[in-house]
Amino acid sequence: MIYLDYQATTPLAPEAREAMLEWLGGPDSTGFGNPHSSHRLGRSAEAAVELARERVAALFPPGGTVVFTSGATEALNLALRGCEPGRAGKPVAVSAIEHSAVLNTALDLPGDTTILAVDRDGLVDPQVLLPDGVGIVSVMQVNNEIGTIQPIADLHARTQAEGAVLVCDAVQAAGKMPIAEADLIAISAHKFHGPKGVGALWVRDGIDLQPHTTGGGQENGLRSGTLSPALCAGMGAAARLAAERMDEDAAHVGALWSRARELFAGWQLNGSAEQRWKGNLNIRREGLDVARLMSDVREVMFSAGSACASESGKPSRILAALGLTAEQTRGSVRLGFGRYTTAEQLERAAELIDAAAAQQE
User: Fold this and answer.
1) Catalytic site residues?
2) Which structural domains are found in the chain, ordered by start?
């Protein structure tokens, strides 16, 4: 098996797995405590959670607080719904290529929602016209389907000037590059070699955020529910490792990208070639039946788009936002590679995919 679907999820780092084991203990261990209990086992578990929080916080800009969540979808809901009461139904603006966790949540908010267009490369113009009195703007740092890197710093300055809050989905950026300045930032552990089922929302100091679920208020009153020390510890270990290896991982991915562009020279690139995380290669071939291609190349794990939308059967709205036709979107595939991908795996995958695609001509 060759795994080329790093945007959907990443392999668990051995270091993250090791960090989790202590907190998955049975009745004879000391690692099963509730981190919100006041006795010794609880305090020990709480210490593990707080160490993980420090390690995750190191991925973010300074001047904010990390709130653990079940993943980025919950974090984004907390960000968008939690700052809405203070925005009192003001207009919301989101980019046309946001993840469904942002788009569907924004459309469910009381205020009008404006969709911000992107250009042919999948980029938002920092000077894009925002609705009058806008309260919330949400733009992701790195797109999960086409890998484009948005000008978040410029957009943050713009939203501050408008008196709005900038929410950033940094799921595909976290652990791979410095996370850009924003007001509320969501990440998910399993996208940088941590475990599934845990994520975080970073809240800039001074941002007024309200909980959108009720309960015990364990996470500074913003997120209720018992935290999993094992999941938090795994996320913390993965974050620490990602921070240490960021330059090394980026160099490795850059080399794979260059080789992939040679191997798939006959394909067209979707999205920007320059403003892009190079672990994402979204390419198309005219007249290609991607469903047939994926069936013919079962040894390679790759995607026709977002894993969250793969069951819909509809053409990608992300590629459509770039101006691609329905036929072009249906002839597009997404290849994702990263830390544990080898050049040999990439070359073998290209050989298999190219051969199967050629049989359709």
Assistant:
1) 308
2) 2-8+246-358 (3.90.1150.10), 15-241 (3.40.640.10)
